[in-house]
Write a structure and sequence with these properties.
The complex is a heterodimer. Chain A has helices at about 1-5, 35-45, 65-75, 85-95; strands spanning about 10-15, 20-30, 50-60, 80-85. By secondary structure, chain A is α/β, with parallel strands linked by helices. Classes of the chains: A alpha/beta, B alpha+beta.
Chain lengths: ~110, ~550
């Protein structure tokens, strides 16, 4: 069903100066595509970075599966931030009460 | 909005195996008894083994018989080679006698070198005599060694010597004598008068002579007869006590002077080697072992497959039972009785998602504070399964405790933060809670990452509450409570994300659908909830993907 719909997620990892890992997500993030992100987050956590940044510029869609994936990092890395969410994605993050936790200025706060 | 695990959809598979439910008292299959397939395999294996073994045996037998015939022929050749050693001294002695006109001394000095035991002698004779034939009557001229046995049998002696005298050729007679039988050899000289040299050699004791291990006869049981008859009286020598030779025998005849020697032989051991003899046994044993192994292995594979099928079916049943037990437990944790509060209608729904193995962590709770106020909670623990369920239970009871201590919604959420840590527990929870005040037409709400409740009056809107992070994300997140004015006969709907979140659809789409569905439905609160559930359930399956909890509160005035 999900494959037929063609939902896909691409995760690109880069390492910023020092110990900052950046995961750039593009595509759609839901239950059917969250697997690679969970793996990438686990992998990043194991390397104990100073900070983990999710760049969501290319992310068109996200549901609560994505929130759970991001929160898995929040529990393990001291600084977790989200950058460049689209309107829809920003809304999901705000509804989850995570705008501040994930370093986003929230209109609702 | 906190579900992380896809629920596997295998209701069809479960249904398909529902009638194949195993019984726990099933007897273990007999470990020896083979199924029909195993028996057939064993039978085929054994038949093939028997055929191969029979073939190996037959080939070996044929080979052995061929080898026996060859060896017997070889032995006959060896026997033939003995003749000159016997014939030459006698022929020479006869010649000496003829040229010396029957000189006994010259005969004796020549022939004694061929007597057994003679100094420097190499021969096998025990007795040698020289005869002159005067007409038909033989006359003894000289005797060397023992007296000839033949002399004791006058008639036999005469007839043999006469026979020998007829031609200058090697002649054999025997066995002669009874106590110590001997074989007699004669050679007659040419010309007149005729001299006959007659010598006897002793036969072995009892005519038994074991063969030397390296002789041509070593691998044979054999008997030698003088003449063509194999009567015991004609036996010259045998290397076995079992005479006549039993079993499969080969026969060879050797010209021995004017007569013949018959050689009868059978195999003493295995001519073609032990391996060739053992081959059919080896084939039989290995083949049988292989056939049995193949049958047992096939049987085990068959049983393992059946066991796997049975286990699969059992596992499915157990999973379905587990799900049902988990659901029962979860339902048991949820409030069984809705508080009866004057002026307030309350309705709840708990809808399991598409049938799966694990339970979700959704819950609702209602606590009457006094006659006019009720504390309500809707929450959702991330993930699925027993861990989510037990976290849900601990949060539910913790909230009841905090509420009984008199804490308001924001303080309750503040305090929950100490109970859960996503880094430690791998779970977090979204909770919305609040106090509904009947008389003052007010709701006081606080929200930890949960979807906003919907308040429906003349119009309807989602209650705008500052949303803090989910429980478990930050230990000391300050939550803010907001008090909202409630219109007359208004309805508040709080729900978990299963109601509005659908795969591939933006959350806002689901929220808008909820809004229009709730606003458009009329009648009792129960009816409103039923309508909302019916309209929001995905049309393809009729079931929500995720577990869904809904709480509705309506002011009667």
């Amino acid at each position: 069903m999900d494959e037929a719909r063609g939902a896909s997620l691409h995760v690109a990892e880069s390492v910023d100066a020092g110990d900052v890992i950046v995961l750039a997500l593009s595509g759609e993030l839901d239950l059917s595509t969250v697997g690679p992100l969970n793996a990438a987050v686990r992998d990043a956590i194991e390397r104990k970075p100073e900070a983990l940044i999710f760049d969501l510029a290319g992310l068109k869609f996200m549901d609560s599966s994505g929130i759970a994936a991001l929160l898995a990092a929040v529990g393990a890395v001291s600084s977790v931030q989200v950058r460049n969410p689209s309107g829809i994605v920003q809304r999901v993050i705000e509804l989850s009460g995570l705008a501040q936790t994930l370093g986003l200025a929230s209109a609702a706060d | 909005m906190v579900d992380t695990v896809r629920r596997t959809r295998h209701r069809d598979e479960l249904d398909a195996h529902a009638d194949g439910r195993p019984t726990s008292g099933r007897a273990r299959p007999n470990p020896i008894r083979l199924s029909r397939f195993g028996l057939a395999l064993l039978a085929v294996g054994l038949i093939a083994t028997a055929a191969l073994s029979w073939t190996a045996h037959t080939i070996n037998e044929r080979n052995e018989n061929r080898l026996l015939a060859l060896q017997t022929k070889q032995a006959a050749t060896v026997l033939q080679a003995v003749i000159p050693a016997l014939q030459t001294p006698l022929a020479s002695a006869a010649e000496i006698a003829a040229t010396s006109d029957g000189n006994a001394a010259r005969f004796s000095s020549y022939i004694k070198g061929y007597l057994a035991g003679a100094p420097g002698g190499t021969g096998s004779f025990v007795s040698a005599t020289l005869w002159r034939m005067a007409g038909r009557t033989p006359r003894l001229i000289a005797t060397v060694g023992a007296a000839p046995e033949l002399v004791a049998h006058t008639a036999q002696e005469r007839s043999f010597l006469r026979r020998a005298a007829k031609a200058p050729a090697f002649d054999v007679v025997g066995p002669v004598g009874t106590d110590h039988p001997r074989l007699g050899f004669a050679y007659a000289s040419a010309g007149r008068p005729t001299y006959v040299v007659y010598a006897e050699s002793a036969l072995p004791q009892g005519r038994r002579a074991p063969s030397a291990p390296d002789s041509a006869f070593a691998e044979l049981r054999f008997a030698m007869y003088l003449g063509r008859s194999t009567q015991p009286a004609a036996l010259i020598e045998a290397n076995t006590d079992q005479v006549p030779i039993a079993g499969h025998t080969a026969r060879a005849t050797v010209s021995f002077g004017t007569g013949v020697v018959t050689l009868v032989a059978a195999r003493a051991g295995q001519l073609g080697g032990t391996l060739a003899q053992m081959l059919w046994w080896i084939v039989a044993l290995v083949g049988t072992a292989l056939a049995i192994t193949a049958a047992v292995v096939a049987e085990r594979l068959l049983r393992r497959r059946r066991a796997a099928e049975r286990l699969t079916s059992e596992v499915r049943t157990l999973l379905s039972e587990q799900r049902s037990i988990a659901e029962t437990l979860q339902h048991a944790l949820l409030p069984q009785q809705i508080p009866d509060i004057d002026g307030l209608d309350i309705a709840v729904r708990y809808i399991p998602g598409v049938d799966g193995i694990d339970i979700g962590g959704d819950w609702y709770d209602l606590i009457a504070l006094d006659e006019h106020r009720v504390f309500f909670v809707v929450g959702d623990v991330s993930g699925r399964g027993l861990a989510s369920g037990s976290i849900m239970a601990s949060l539910l009871f913790a909230i009841r405790g905090f509420v009984s201590e008199g804490h308001g919604p924001a303080e309750v959420l503040d305090r929950l933060g100490a109970l859960l840590d996503v880094g430690r527990d791998s779970h977090f929870a979204t909770v919305v809670c609040g106090i509904a005040d009947i008389d003052r037409h007010e709701i006081t709400l606080a929200n930890a990452g949960h979807l906003p409740p919907l308040l429906i009056g003349e119009q309807g809107d989602f209650v705008q509450v500052p949303t803090g992070p989910p429980i478990g994300v930050r230990a000391h997140a300050p939550y803010t409570a907001v008090t909202v004015r409630v219109p007359r006969r208004a309805t508040l709907l709080a729900y978990t994300d299963g109601l509005v979140e659908r795969r591939g659809e933006s959350l806002d789409v689901g929220l808008r659908q909820l809004h229009s569905s709730a606003l458009g439905s009329s009648g009792q609160l129960e009816d409103v909830l039923s309508t909302v559930v019916a309209e929001l359930a995905p049309s393809d399956s009729g079931c929500f993907d995720d577990d869904t909890a809904i709480l509705g509160v309506r002011w009667q005035n």
